[in-house]
Structures
1.
Amino acid sequence: MSESMAPATADRVLDLLREPPGTPDVSAGYLDLLGPSAKAPPSLAQSVMESTFLPRIYEKVWRPVGFNLAKGWPLGPDTAEEHAMARDWLGLSHPGYAARPPATVLDVACGPGNVTRALAAGIGPEGLVVGLDASESMLARAVADTDPGADVRYVRGDAVDLPFRDGAFDAVCCFGALYLFDDPWTAVDGMTRVLKPGGRLVILTSRRPAPLPSARLGGELLRRATGFTVFGDREVTEALADRGFTAIRQRRYPLMQVVGGSRSPR
Ligand SMILES: C[S@@+](CC[C@H](N)C(=O)[O-])C[C@H]1O[C@@H](n2cnc3c(N)ncnc32)[C@H](O)[C@@H]1O
């Protein structure tokens, strides 16, 4: 077991799993549930995420430039405002606030842990944020950039087949990744399943700016060529409504949208 994942904390993550492994592999500083036999990345977009170069420039260059433009910079929220929105919508607190909930939070497709750490700034001492990603290079960066004393742990797993128990989390966040999944709606099913009744979900994903058939056709061609899905304005909100979410809300930006809601209390 590596120093960056102490036994007690590994146990906290293992407690959240549907089928905890008999011999957990935490040798890289995260709990690896995929191992060397993981499938090759299926799309061009996911292959880029698996590269060793992207994690090095992701948080400082790729993420702020690409995402802020897609959110309509300078009118849309910058990275700090986006993180504050995520904490608000998930019912968490903020850095510097005394009262922080002891929430158990899942960050789906956490990449290098940029959003994971922002969520951790809004939880109390008994809380835990688990970042899950499939990419070894992204997770290596996440572990390196996260204070080992923080209430944050990382898991290598598949976002479309979440390895966690039903109702394990108070809040689930999935930023900048739903459009990469080969089956986004099965992923949303899983996020719903691992939420406690009444727990909150927030998703930041792509947005098709125009409802025109030509825009839809362009989006379909993009998906086939690269694996990148562009979602219409009602697709994600309706997916949450279909799964019994309440208090559904949405912010629309030129090329992105944020959608949130509360899982039905029953
Ligand atoms: C653009 S990054 C997003 C990072 C961070 N959440 C953010 O908002 O900046 C997308 C991440 O999704 C991960 N990813 C894509 N498909 C995945 C899957 N099926 N399971 C787990 N992670 C996946 C990639 O490895 C990559 O790290």
Note: The radius of gyration is 17 Å.
2.
Amino acid sequence: MVSLAAAPPLWLRDNCPCAQCRDPRNGQKLFQITELPAALAVGTVHDTRTPDGAPAREVVWAPDGHRSLYAESWLDAHLPGAAAGPGDGRTEDDKELWAAERFADGIPEAGWASYMSDPAVRADLLDAVLRLGFALVRDVPVRDRQVLDVARTFGHVRVTNYGELFEVRVEADPNNLAFTGARITPHTDNPYRDPVPTLQLLHCLTNAAQGGDSGLVDGFHAAALLRAEDPDAYETLTRVPVPFAFADEHTELRAHRPLIGTDPTGRIREIRFNNRSIGALRLPAGLLAGFYSAYRRFGELLLRPELQLDFRLAPGDCLIFDNTRLLHARTAFAESGDRHLQGAYADIDGLASTLAVLRREAM
Ligand SMILES: [Zn+2]
């Protein structure tokens, strides 16, 4: 049996499960940390059982005499020294990093009909988006605005200055190179926004043009490679805020974020990479040179052919991908050819929630 001695009193009391401390209807805490006694200490401890008969320990607190009942199983899992808990699903630790070869036998996909009718198929597909960064739904009805209905199967559409959805096709006076036939190298979308849209959907309505093939690169894998091959460059890209900006007649957006975002413990959590929207960095010359050398190095790495998964979207295909992790690309296409996708943004917290509830219901 593990000892309570190593547990800081404030931590242990903050986790008291009693009905005075947590609302039994929703599990939410009913007190502020500042309301606990300043001289809080464990008074007496004795072995007992929970109301459903599981082994437990009861703590009587000094100086206020409050009583807390902790299940032994909870103490085993949570006391200092227990194994680290699961992450929040967003960092490299919770992902399967990949190069193109990983999908030699096919990419994660499902047909629209089974995706809609079978919760297990839906769960597998959403799990692939979280774990691998993308999945493809096939045979989605080729219908105007259908991409919004796909997003609503797992979350909420993120409306932006582009509207609820954006048209990816050749436009006469494009405010973005995406709306021309130009080749687009691997990038993430909207790095000039904070928060950035965490998910993107691309629904193919027509793809009859010569060219216009799609590519995906795992940015977490690329960043991990950079960390292994050139730790100084990696470090630079996690530290230097990059001024991303977008402006057109009605809009002016900016966000200053590093190309490789890490969490407080240094794990890779977010990639922002888009050559079209990087503004002029203002730094001392030495730091600028260091940044540009690291930026170029990372850019070269992202273009390694073995990292890029290439495929071609057919009418009815809807690609769903993690815009904080995967970079997407397309080859040039003849502007005279017919190519039309509709895109939308959504968010990954909603998708993760939908998956968690699906799994709860499957138990
Ligand atoms: Zn309590």
Note: The pocket of zinc ion is lined by residues 16, 18, 20-21, 66, 68 (CB under 6 Å).
